[in-house]
Structure formats: C-alpha cells, structure tokens
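Entry type: protein chain
Record version: 2
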Amino acid sequence: MATNPPTGDGHRNGAVRDRSQFKTPAGNWAKRAPNGRIIDVKTTDKTPFKGVRRER
C-alpha cells in the first residue's frame, strides 16, 4: 500500500504570489521580483517557470 511522503520536505505548495513572469522579445521567459528587477531568465528551453504568475 502506498503512503504519503513526510511533510515539511521543503517544497513549495501553491503559486509564488509576489513574483511574475513575462516573455522576452527573444522568446525566453524572465522572472520579475516585486520591486521590478529581473531575477532569472530561462535560456535552456522556451517553457515558462512553474508556479509563477504571468504578466499581461
């Protein structure tokens, strides 16, 4: 019988509320901090970040 893993294993539950992501003109996805600074850019693949809301 399968059992649930132990709680408190450090993974995130739900979306990151204070950050957003947008698509750059080059087609990469970039993550923006609450103060407007760009935190990270995905250059390996063209898929969006998981759990981060998108800007319009």
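Comment: The chain has no helices and four strands.
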